[in-house]
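Minutes, project check-in

Agenda point 3 was the complex the collaborators sent over. CS summarized: two entities, 361 residues total, and the question is how they sit relative to each other. Sequences were read into the notes so everyone works from the same version.
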Amino acid sequence: MQIELRILRFDPERDRKPHEESYQVEAGPMDRVLDLLHKVKYEQDGTLTFRRSCAHGVCGSDAMLINGRNRLACKIRVDQLKGRRITVAPLPGLPVMKDLVVDMESFFAKFRSVQPYLQADDPDPERERRQSAEDREVFDDTTKCILCAACTTSCPSFWAQPSYVGPAAIVNAHRFIFDSRDDHAADRLDVLADGDGVWRCRTIFNCTDACPRGIHITQAILEVSSKIVEHHA
Amino acid sequence: MLFRYRGSEGMLAWAFHRISGVAVWAFILLHVFDIWLANVNPTLYNDLLSLYGSPAGRTVETALGAAVLYHALNGLRIIIMDFWPSTTRYHKQLWYANWVVFVVIGIPFVLQIMAPAFGLAAPFSFGG
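CS then shared the predicted structure for the full assembly.
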Protein backbone atom coordinates (compact mmCIF):
# COMPACT_ATOMS: atom_id res chain seq x y z
CA MET A 1 0.00 0.00 0.00
CA GLN A 2 0.99 3.62 -0.53
CA ILE A 3 1.81 5.56 2.61
CA GLU A 4 2.20 9.31 2.74
CA LEU A 5 5.10 10.08 5.03
CA ARG A 6 5.13 13.69 6.21
CA ILE A 7 8.47 14.57 7.75
CA LEU A 8 9.31 17.78 9.58
CA ARG A 9 12.59 18.83 8.03
CA PHE A 10 15.14 21.44 8.97
CA ASP A 11 18.52 22.25 7.48
CA PRO A 12 20.27 24.88 9.63
CA GLU A 13 22.34 26.02 6.62
CA ARG A 14 19.30 26.64 4.42
CA ASP A 15 16.10 26.96 6.45
CA ARG A 16 15.01 29.63 8.87
CA LYS A 17 12.45 27.35 10.46
CA PRO A 18 11.37 23.69 10.17
CA HIS A 19 8.92 22.77 7.41
CA GLU A 20 7.00 19.65 6.49
CA GLU A 21 7.84 17.62 3.38
CA SER A 22 5.71 14.84 1.99
CA TYR A 23 6.92 11.54 0.49
CA GLN A 24 4.93 8.68 -1.06
CA VAL A 25 6.35 5.33 0.02
CA GLU A 26 5.30 1.79 -0.86
CA ALA A 27 4.98 -0.14 2.41
CA GLY A 28 3.57 -3.31 3.89
CA PRO A 29 1.67 -3.47 7.20
CA MET A 30 4.62 -5.11 8.96
CA ASP A 31 7.12 -2.43 7.86
CA ARG A 32 8.37 -0.21 10.63
CA VAL A 33 8.55 3.57 10.40
CA LEU A 34 12.34 3.19 10.33
CA ASP A 35 11.99 1.09 7.16
CA LEU A 36 9.96 3.90 5.57
CA LEU A 37 12.58 6.48 6.58
CA HIS A 38 15.26 4.26 5.03
CA LYS A 39 13.24 4.03 1.80
CA VAL A 40 13.00 7.82 1.62
CA LYS A 41 16.70 8.26 2.34
CA TYR A 42 17.93 5.55 -0.03
CA GLU A 43 15.45 6.05 -2.88
CA GLN A 44 14.12 9.61 -2.80
CA ASP A 45 16.18 12.08 -0.79
CA GLY A 46 19.64 11.19 0.50
CA THR A 47 19.85 14.39 2.52
CA LEU A 48 17.23 13.19 5.03
CA THR A 49 19.01 12.97 8.38
CA PHE A 50 18.08 10.83 11.36
CA ARG A 51 19.78 8.71 14.01
CA ARG A 52 19.55 4.95 14.16
CA SER A 53 21.97 2.30 15.26
CA CYS A 54 20.79 -1.17 16.26
CA ALA A 55 17.40 -0.76 14.57
CA HIS A 56 15.87 -3.30 16.95
CA GLY A 57 14.64 -1.31 19.95
CA VAL A 58 17.73 -1.76 22.08
CA CYS A 59 20.00 1.26 21.53
CA GLY A 60 17.32 3.97 21.73
CA SER A 61 18.82 6.11 18.93
CA ASP A 62 15.73 6.58 16.80
CA ALA A 63 13.19 8.00 19.23
CA MET A 64 11.07 10.59 17.43
CA LEU A 65 7.61 12.11 17.39
CA ILE A 66 5.49 9.76 15.25
CA ASN A 67 1.84 10.59 14.69
CA GLY A 68 1.94 12.98 17.64
CA ARG A 69 3.54 10.60 20.16
CA ASN A 70 7.13 9.83 21.07
CA ARG A 71 8.09 6.35 19.91
CA LEU A 72 11.04 4.39 18.55
CA ALA A 73 10.90 4.37 14.73
CA CYS A 74 12.34 0.83 14.78
CA LYS A 75 9.57 -0.54 17.01
CA ILE A 76 6.39 1.00 15.64
CA ARG A 77 4.88 -0.73 12.62
CA VAL A 78 2.66 0.69 9.88
CA ASP A 79 -0.29 -1.50 10.93
CA GLN A 80 -0.08 -0.20 14.50
CA LEU A 81 -0.43 3.39 13.33
CA LYS A 82 -3.64 2.85 11.35
CA GLY A 83 -4.17 5.08 8.34
CA ARG A 84 -2.29 5.92 5.17
CA ARG A 85 -0.64 9.07 6.45
CA ILE A 86 2.21 9.07 8.98
CA THR A 87 3.76 12.22 10.42
CA VAL A 88 7.31 12.22 11.74
CA ALA A 89 9.01 15.03 13.65
CA PRO A 90 12.05 15.34 15.93
CA LEU A 91 11.70 14.81 19.68
CA PRO A 92 9.95 17.87 21.20
CA GLY A 93 11.71 20.23 23.56
CA LEU A 94 15.31 19.63 22.46
CA PRO A 95 17.20 21.85 19.96
CA VAL A 96 16.98 20.45 16.42
CA MET A 97 20.38 20.02 14.75
CA LYS A 98 19.12 18.75 11.40
CA ASP A 99 15.86 17.09 10.30
CA LEU A 100 15.13 14.42 12.95
CA VAL A 101 18.40 14.79 14.85
CA VAL A 102 18.22 16.70 18.14
CA ASP A 103 21.00 17.90 20.43
CA MET A 104 20.97 15.43 23.35
CA GLU A 105 23.77 17.08 25.36
CA SER A 106 21.52 18.71 27.97
CA PHE A 107 19.63 15.41 28.33
CA PHE A 108 22.84 13.48 29.07
CA ALA A 109 24.10 16.23 31.41
CA LYS A 110 20.98 15.69 33.54
CA PHE A 111 21.52 11.94 33.41
CA ARG A 112 25.09 12.41 34.69
CA SER A 113 23.91 14.78 37.43
CA VAL A 114 22.19 11.94 39.33
CA GLN A 115 25.40 9.88 39.53
CA PRO A 116 24.08 6.88 37.63
CA TYR A 117 26.70 4.37 38.79
CA LEU A 118 27.19 2.15 41.82
CA GLN A 119 28.94 3.81 44.77
CA ALA A 120 29.69 1.40 47.58
CA ASP A 121 31.76 2.52 50.56
CA ASP A 122 32.64 -0.92 51.89
CA PRO A 123 35.97 -2.41 50.74
CA ASP A 124 35.90 -4.20 47.40
CA PRO A 125 34.90 -7.81 47.97
CA GLU A 126 36.98 -10.65 46.62
CA ARG A 127 34.20 -11.61 44.25
CA GLU A 128 30.92 -9.90 43.30
CA ARG A 129 28.66 -7.91 45.67
CA ARG A 130 25.85 -10.32 46.36
CA GLN A 131 22.21 -9.33 46.44
CA SER A 132 19.04 -11.27 47.16
CA ALA A 133 16.43 -11.72 44.45
CA GLU A 134 13.98 -9.70 46.59
CA ASP A 135 16.40 -6.77 46.86
CA ARG A 136 17.03 -6.89 43.11
CA GLU A 137 13.30 -6.93 42.38
CA VAL A 138 12.84 -3.52 44.04
CA PHE A 139 14.57 -1.68 41.19
CA ASP A 140 14.25 -4.26 38.40
CA ASP A 141 11.90 -2.09 36.33
CA THR A 142 14.23 0.90 36.20
CA THR A 143 17.21 -1.15 34.98
CA LYS A 144 15.53 -1.37 31.58
CA CYS A 145 16.10 2.26 30.52
CA ILE A 146 17.87 2.69 27.16
CA LEU A 147 18.19 6.50 27.39
CA CYS A 148 16.21 7.16 24.22
CA ALA A 149 14.77 10.39 25.75
CA ALA A 150 11.23 9.55 24.60
CA CYS A 151 10.00 10.03 28.19
CA THR A 152 11.72 13.30 29.07
CA THR A 153 10.78 14.96 25.78
CA SER A 154 7.11 13.91 26.10
CA CYS A 155 6.75 15.68 29.44
CA PRO A 156 4.84 19.01 29.46
CA SER A 157 6.72 19.99 32.65
CA PHE A 158 9.97 19.62 30.69
CA TRP A 159 8.60 21.64 27.75
CA ALA A 160 7.63 24.42 30.14
CA GLN A 161 10.84 24.25 32.18
CA PRO A 162 13.79 22.80 30.26
CA SER A 163 15.90 22.86 33.43
CA TYR A 164 13.66 20.10 34.89
CA VAL A 165 15.88 17.05 35.40
CA GLY A 166 13.24 14.94 33.65
CA PRO A 167 11.85 11.41 33.91
CA ALA A 168 14.85 9.60 32.37
CA ALA A 169 17.33 10.98 34.91
CA ILE A 170 14.94 10.17 37.79
CA VAL A 171 14.47 6.61 36.49
CA ASN A 172 18.25 6.14 36.41
CA ALA A 173 18.59 7.64 39.89
CA HIS A 174 15.86 5.26 41.11
CA ARG A 175 17.87 2.32 39.78
CA PHE A 176 20.72 3.14 42.22
CA ILE A 177 18.78 4.77 45.09
CA PHE A 178 16.95 1.49 45.68
CA ASP A 179 19.99 -0.73 45.07
CA SER A 180 20.86 -2.41 48.40
CA ARG A 181 24.58 -2.46 47.42
CA ASP A 182 24.80 1.31 46.96
CA ASP A 183 25.73 3.70 49.80
CA HIS A 184 25.17 7.10 48.16
CA ALA A 185 21.40 7.29 47.75
CA ALA A 186 21.38 10.43 49.94
CA ASP A 187 23.54 12.33 47.40
CA ARG A 188 21.11 11.54 44.60
CA LEU A 189 18.10 12.40 46.76
CA ASP A 190 19.66 15.80 47.45
CA VAL A 191 20.02 16.43 43.70
CA LEU A 192 16.43 15.39 43.06
CA ALA A 193 14.96 17.34 46.01
CA ASP A 194 16.01 20.51 44.17
CA GLY A 195 13.44 22.84 42.57
CA ASP A 196 14.20 21.26 39.19
CA GLY A 197 13.96 17.75 40.61
CA VAL A 198 11.11 15.33 41.21
CA TRP A 199 8.63 17.96 42.41
CA ARG A 200 8.13 19.20 38.86
CA CYS A 201 6.35 15.94 38.01
CA ARG A 202 2.60 16.56 37.58
CA THR A 203 1.66 12.88 37.14
CA ILE A 204 0.71 13.43 33.50
CA PHE A 205 1.86 9.92 32.46
CA ASN A 206 3.10 10.94 28.99
CA CYS A 207 6.49 9.52 30.02
CA THR A 208 5.03 6.16 31.02
CA ASP A 209 3.03 5.98 27.78
CA ALA A 210 6.04 6.92 25.66
CA CYS A 211 8.56 4.51 27.20
CA PRO A 212 9.40 1.86 24.57
CA ARG A 213 10.58 -0.46 27.35
CA GLY A 214 7.34 -0.29 29.29
CA ILE A 215 8.96 1.13 32.43
CA HIS A 216 6.44 2.39 35.00
CA ILE A 217 8.16 5.76 35.07
CA THR A 218 5.60 7.76 37.04
CA GLN A 219 5.63 5.08 39.73
CA ALA A 220 9.43 5.33 39.91
CA ILE A 221 9.26 9.14 40.17
CA LEU A 222 6.71 8.95 43.01
CA GLU A 223 8.79 6.30 44.82
CA VAL A 224 11.78 8.64 44.68
CA SER A 225 9.57 11.52 45.94
CA SER A 226 8.47 9.38 48.90
CA LYS A 227 12.10 8.48 49.59
CA ILE A 228 13.03 12.18 49.63
CA VAL A 229 10.25 12.91 52.15
CA GLU A 230 11.45 9.96 54.26
CA HIS A 231 15.06 11.13 53.98
CA HIS A 232 14.27 14.67 55.10
CA ALA A 233 11.79 13.66 57.84
CA MET B 1 3.52 21.24 21.44
CA LEU B 2 0.98 21.16 24.24
CA PHE B 3 -1.88 20.99 21.74
CA ARG B 4 -0.10 18.82 19.18
CA TYR B 5 1.11 16.00 21.45
CA ARG B 6 -1.38 13.14 21.55
CA GLY B 7 -1.32 12.22 25.21
CA SER B 8 -3.74 9.69 26.64
CA GLU B 9 -5.99 9.73 29.72
CA GLY B 10 -3.21 10.97 32.02
CA MET B 11 -2.62 14.08 29.92
CA LEU B 12 -6.35 14.77 29.62
CA ALA B 13 -6.78 14.36 33.40
CA TRP B 14 -3.98 16.86 33.95
CA ALA B 15 -5.28 19.34 31.34
CA PHE B 16 -8.80 19.27 32.84
CA HIS B 17 -7.29 19.65 36.31
CA ARG B 18 -5.46 22.81 35.21
CA ILE B 19 -8.45 24.25 33.34
CA SER B 20 -10.84 23.55 36.25
CA GLY B 21 -8.30 25.03 38.69
CA VAL B 22 -8.10 28.27 36.70
CA ALA B 23 -11.92 28.36 36.41
CA VAL B 24 -12.35 28.01 40.19
CA TRP B 25 -9.74 30.70 40.77
CA ALA B 26 -11.58 33.02 38.34
CA PHE B 27 -14.82 32.39 40.24
CA ILE B 28 -13.13 33.26 43.54
CA LEU B 29 -12.08 36.61 42.01
CA LEU B 30 -15.67 37.20 40.88
CA HIS B 31 -16.94 36.24 44.33
CA VAL B 32 -14.54 38.66 46.03
CA PHE B 33 -15.81 41.35 43.64
CA ASP B 34 -19.52 40.73 44.29
CA ILE B 35 -19.07 40.59 48.07
CA TRP B 36 -17.22 43.90 47.83
CA LEU B 37 -20.14 45.23 45.76
CA ALA B 38 -22.62 44.29 48.52
CA ASN B 39 -20.85 46.78 50.73
CA VAL B 40 -20.40 49.68 48.31
CA ASN B 41 -23.49 49.39 46.07
CA PRO B 42 -26.24 47.08 47.44
CA THR B 43 -28.59 47.79 44.50
CA LEU B 44 -26.01 46.70 41.95
CA TYR B 45 -25.24 43.68 44.13
CA ASN B 46 -28.93 42.65 44.03
CA ASP B 47 -28.98 43.09 40.24
CA LEU B 48 -25.94 40.85 39.99
CA LEU B 49 -27.61 38.20 42.17
CA SER B 50 -30.64 38.17 39.91
CA LEU B 51 -28.25 37.71 36.97
CA TYR B 52 -26.81 34.66 38.79
CA GLY B 53 -30.39 33.36 39.06
CA SER B 54 -31.08 33.67 35.31
CA PRO B 55 -30.81 30.59 33.04
CA ALA B 56 -27.42 31.83 31.74
CA GLY B 57 -26.20 32.49 35.28
CA ARG B 58 -27.36 29.06 36.43
CA THR B 59 -25.53 27.46 33.49
CA VAL B 60 -22.33 29.20 34.57
CA GLU B 61 -22.94 28.07 38.18
CA THR B 62 -23.38 24.51 36.95
CA ALA B 63 -20.08 24.78 35.08
CA LEU B 64 -18.49 26.12 38.26
CA GLY B 65 -19.87 23.18 40.24
CA ALA B 66 -18.49 20.79 37.62
CA ALA B 67 -15.06 22.45 37.80
CA VAL B 68 -14.97 22.26 41.60
CA LEU B 69 -16.12 18.64 41.62
CA TYR B 70 -13.68 17.51 38.92
CA HIS B 71 -10.78 19.35 40.58
CA ALA B 72 -11.59 17.79 43.95
CA LEU B 73 -12.00 14.25 42.63
CA ASN B 74 -8.89 14.37 40.45
CA GLY B 75 -7.03 15.90 43.39
CA LEU B 76 -7.97 12.82 45.42
CA ARG B 77 -6.76 10.61 42.56
CA ILE B 78 -3.39 12.39 42.62
CA ILE B 79 -3.18 12.11 46.42
CA ILE B 80 -3.85 8.36 46.22
CA MET B 81 -1.05 7.95 43.67
CA ASP B 82 1.30 10.14 45.72
CA PHE B 83 0.84 8.04 48.84
CA TRP B 84 0.75 4.65 47.10
CA PRO B 85 2.92 4.90 43.95
CA SER B 86 2.03 1.37 42.79
CA THR B 87 -1.54 2.63 42.14
CA THR B 88 -0.13 4.61 39.19
CA ARG B 89 -0.41 1.33 37.26
CA TYR B 90 -4.17 1.82 37.47
CA HIS B 91 -4.25 5.58 36.86
CA LYS B 92 -6.61 5.21 33.88
CA GLN B 93 -9.07 3.12 35.88
CA LEU B 94 -8.86 5.67 38.71
CA TRP B 95 -9.68 8.42 36.24
CA TYR B 96 -12.69 6.53 34.87
CA ALA B 97 -13.83 5.91 38.47
CA ASN B 98 -13.54 9.68 38.96
CA TRP B 99 -16.00 10.23 36.13
CA VAL B 100 -18.47 7.73 37.57
CA VAL B 101 -18.40 9.54 40.93
CA PHE B 102 -18.53 12.87 39.08
CA VAL B 103 -21.76 11.89 37.32
CA VAL B 104 -23.35 10.33 40.42
CA ILE B 105 -22.67 13.40 42.57
CA GLY B 106 -23.11 15.89 39.73
CA ILE B 107 -26.59 14.97 38.49
CA PRO B 108 -28.48 15.97 41.69
CA PHE B 109 -26.52 19.22 41.75
CA VAL B 110 -27.33 20.01 38.12
CA LEU B 111 -31.02 19.30 38.74
CA GLN B 112 -31.03 21.46 41.85
CA ILE B 113 -29.30 24.39 40.15
CA MET B 114 -30.96 24.25 36.71
CA ALA B 115 -34.55 23.22 37.54
CA PRO B 116 -35.72 26.72 38.62
CA ALA B 117 -34.44 28.16 35.33
CA PHE B 118 -37.01 26.01 33.50
CA GLY B 119 -39.78 26.63 36.02
CA LEU B 120 -39.53 23.05 37.26
CA ALA B 121 -38.83 23.99 40.88
CA ALA B 122 -38.85 27.02 43.10
CA PRO B 123 -35.45 28.53 43.84
CA PHE B 124 -34.07 28.10 47.33
CA SER B 125 -35.43 30.67 49.71
CA PHE B 126 -33.47 31.64 52.76
CA GLY B 127 -35.19 33.06 55.84
CA GLY B 128 -38.57 34.68 55.18
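Noted in discussion: Chain A has two domains: 2-102, 105-232.
Follow-up: revisit at the next meeting once the mutant set is ready.
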